[in-house]
Design goal:
The protein is mostly helical. It contains 5 helices and no strands. The protein is elongated and about 50 Å long.
Length: 159
Amino acid sequence: METPTTTITNEVLNDLIAINNDRIAGYEKAIKEIKNADPVIKELFMTMINDSREYRNTLGVEVQAAGGTMETGTTAAGKLYRTWMDIKSAFSGTDVKSILSSCVTGEEAAQRAYKSALEHKEIPANIRLILVEEKAALKASLDRIKAYYNDVKDYGEPV
């Protein structure tokens, strides 16, 4: 039988799993949309996809260990943030600058989601450590995306 703490923890973790699912879908969409992008940016997006798969799976193990069911969807019906879904539909143009801008917005939403999750006092210490580590890694991704954004000319070509 789940305790209220376990239920809250599983809900919070499943929200973060959904955010990571959204992040995967968002970067997959970005890779498809960018036609002439620097291969380094595409490689960065692939790295972020792989990172989110790892984060999602790590969180899923914790949900399942507590007797819960791991979220398989995205935040379309969402509880915390829906920004990644907005990003996926926001690619009206395929220039690198606008795509990177959307990615910055999504990464900032992921930061807010992890911050919100960490505010829950019910989260056990071992899971809190996982969330702190994932949040830090996501912050590094945000910083990298911002750096690429700042290095791209307005018409979408790398400087």
